[in-house]
Automatic annotation (TrEMBL), chains A, B:
GO MF annotations, alphabetized: hydrolase activity, acting on ester bonds
InterPro entries: 2H_phosphoesterase_YjcG-like, Cyclic_Pdiesterase, YjcG
UniProt entry keywords in alphabetical sequence: Hydrolase
Motif (HXTX 1): 34-37
Catalytic residues as annotated in Swiss-Prot or TrEMBL: H34, H115
Family to which this protein belongs: Belongs to the 2H phosphoesterase superfamily. YjcG family.
Domain of life: Bacteria
Name this protein carries in UniProt: Putative phosphoesterase GLW05_01095
Keyword Repeat assigned: no
Record organism: Pontibacillus yanchengensis
Amino acid sequence: MKYGIAIFPSKDIQDVANSYRMRYDPHYALIPPHITLKEAFEEDDEDIEKVVKELSEVAKETNPFSFAIRKLSTFSPVTNTIYMKVEASEELQNLHERLNRTDIPKEDTFNFVPHITIAQKLSDDEHSDVYGSLQMKSFEFEERIDRFQLLYQLDNGSWTVYETFRLGKG
Amino acid sequence: MKYGIAIFPSKDIQDVANSYRMRYDPHYALIPPHITLKEAFEEDDEDIEKVVKELSEVAKETNPFSFAIRKLSTFSPVTNTIYMKVEASEELQNLHERLNRTDIPKEDTFNFVPHITIAQKLSDDEHSDVYGSLQMKSFEFEERIDRFQLLYQLDNGSWTVYETFRLGKG
């Protein structure tokens, strides 16, 4: 089965993100707005409890932390993806590193750029239009993160939560 | 914020349910296939941690249990909703009752008929067509449940998981 690890930001951020995703993100209906902590990886169902145990350990050793969003950014020209840039606190970087140092299969192939996608798979023209008009808006959030989620993917591409891990609690 | 409590069945059941929901359930994109344990209720964000504590207690006192699906059924004529009938084990009934005996606001207004919706908001004609043709198919599942989820609703009507509760663990 295909699993992934993500953080759901507050309802406020999710509602703002969805107001754009609805129009500009074909993954809108597949998963709530999120910060990906670990890209999708394959794991046997029989082994997922080992992963859960490891994630509990990582969560227990990580304290809740805050992050800020101050602006939008884009992965263009690599992909036409527009996102809320999550200012990388040291804790978030450490959490990402810890998750990639476990026995969980597959190291992430990209550099870790914490973000919340609000638009993707745009044509070049759409991308410059949307990015241009969104840059006139203000995106300012600051919030505390105290959990992350292990999810699995269904055949239709959508994601279901398997388990929640509270930081500092295990 | 609006919260709800649900069980996600296995990926196998979710995939089968989604293959019908895709066409026949306007809530398809809002939440994965699920068994509702407690209908949506309003709770202040500041008080949700009290609810979490209560749910942890209930989870700890409830052992994992099995359930079976043997056939489809419908809520017609009350609503044109077609569902996989979850054969109500005593444990599932008890869990539902325990969740309604907590301080969590709002007792459920309907009798507890555990089910996984696969079609809803059909016209009368659609309902009899779809129900007629689906009844020729076999729906046979048996599986073990070891967790439930507390979710909250976003402005677009979709649901995000807030926390997972493992049965027998708290």
